[in-house]
Amino acid sequence: PCAFMDSYDPNTVFSSIDHMGRYAYANQAKIAQWNLARFAETLLKIIDDDINKAIKLAEETINRFSEVYQTKWVLMMCSKLGLSNSRKGDENLIFDLLNWMQKNKVDYTTTFYSLSKHEKPKGKIFQEEQFKDWYQNWQNRLRENNNSLESSINLMRSVNPSVIPRNHIVEKVLEATNGGNLKPLQNFLSVLRDPYSSRDCIKKYQTPSKSSDSVYKTFCGT
Asked: How many helices (H) and strands (E) does the chain have?
């Protein structure tokens, strides 16, 4: 992780040298598994004195990663939607929302934060029929949840941040700091220490970047 995605796009890439999208958002699980495989290679002599047995044990463990990751990912996304457990059909509910977000270039953090308020999100984009249909399906699923509606809302508010260190704001804070003004940094850090609470002072930090600022690059060694 080296930056925060604003508008949801699984093809999002931040690294200045990643021209082929190897580390794109959608590839994070595969890259994590690849990294674990490289790490395992350094531990073979510790895993077992018999190198062939060590390789077999490492491969068996790493090959389970995809299933473990997918299970954890679904549970995480269910939590973001106020669902305390997952059941058949929840993946479709999740991907329907993500596909809508990608199609309309909707901000990832703001969308989930808006849903956690337990009131239908306002704005022209949320008036689309595709979103209305999804919203109704989500409400129906919430009614089938094992927990009360209040518990679902509390769950969402505990995992959907109201504020994140958005890339364009981080850059402005760094610029001020490099110029000798530490006040923006101090204010920013005070807000980020409590990212799940909603209060007036965070509003200026919630605004997504403008389209002209959307091409954000990071560099090795920063």
From this structure: 11, 0
How many CB atoms are located within 10 Å of the residue 203 CB? 11
Cα–Cα distance, 176 to 66 (Å, whole number): 43
In angstroms, the CA 127 to CA 44 distance is 56
Q: Which amino acid is at 132?
A: K
pTM of this structure:
0.89
| pLDDT tens column, 167-218 | 999 999 999 999 999 999 999 999 999 999 989 899 999 988 876 555 788 8
Beta bridge partners of residue 15, listed in sequence order: 218
Give CA–CA dist 222/211, Å, rounded: 24
At residue 11, the 3 state secondary structure works out as coil
Which residues, 6 or more positions from 116, have their beta carbon under 8 angstroms from its beta carbon?
Answer: 82, 153, 156, 157, 160
Contacts of 3 (CB under 8 A, 6+ apart): 14, 167, 216, 218
Q: How far apart are the two ends of the chain, measured CA to CA in Å?
A: 12
Nearest of 47, 38, 45 to residue 65 by alpha carbon: 38
| Amino acid symbol at 185 | L
Helices (H), 144-196: 149-159, 167-178, 183-192
